[in-house]
Amino acid sequence: MDASVVIVNYQGRGTLTRCLDAVALQHGVELETIVIDNASPDGSADEADGRAGVSVVRNCENTGFGRACNQGAELASGRVLLFLNFDSRPEPGWAAALVACLADHPHAGAAQGVVLREPSGDVNTAGNRVHYLGFGWAPQGGPPPPVASQPYEVFCASGAALAVPRALFAEIGGFWEAMFLYQEDADLSWRIHLTGRRVLCCPAARSQHDYEFSRNPAKYFHLERNRLLMVAANYELGSLIRLAPALLATEAAMVAVAARGGFLSHKLRATASAARALPAVRAQRRRVRVLRRASDREIGPLLETRLGDEFGAGVARVSAPLLRGYLDLLAPAWRRRSAAGPASGDA
Fold it and tell me: Which pLDDT tens digit goes with each residue over 82-92?
């Protein structure tokens, strides 16, 4: 089996059908499809029943995105795992392009396709960015890179359209299940970099995503909590000590931002939840230490020193010299080199 498509579904009535119809049109590779339904109350899992080559697992509760993906990976028999959002429609040839990308680049540990917003057709993600303080974002808008463009390196491959060799996924422990939702793809990508492998974006693999950016208290909670977990688990101890003043100052700034935005209680809950997860962080750090083949000195230049405009153009502009200056002072070996391709915007 060339590849296994893993789709985590939650309340995907109507959209799951469109996704599975598009998967059925893939060609050039032998595929199986595994749908993990996270106890959807709308009955949308029924849309996967009776389809050739599609297996359905119905969870009794919502286990979160990462854990459900791991469930699918355990059932998969394909050499490559293809994680696909249920509200996406891969274009014909999407799966074949991602499988070929990994085969043609044996030092790559993951590849994502170019994800386009539906119906506008502009970029939803062509490679995600991660700041050295753990903030992650996908530069939005603009035309996609040409289909014939060569794959290029990114720091984070989006979980919306992600390919990972199944053997490597098992080796690095899959998605970290301490993260219920959000940032799990950034954490996975970080660990892939730690093994010394590259993470790529493949412009030949395209999917349409029914995506609308939103800010809500639950999302804010998970983003902030998981940002702290990811940073705490993946940096070397020396890096954490050098970054501690910046991380503490960022916490104070985030409290002020949350208070102005009406999310203060969620920020405080996120920080408290991250603190309670310290035993899980310690266990994850032990696993990371075993995996590590690349030092922070090698990985650091792939991380951003400037926040994206998605955080507000004013915030990005004002904070840029402070964030870059701090890193240049305490970690001068982390000299910036581009980790992002043609659709990623200004670094």
Answer: 999 999 999 99
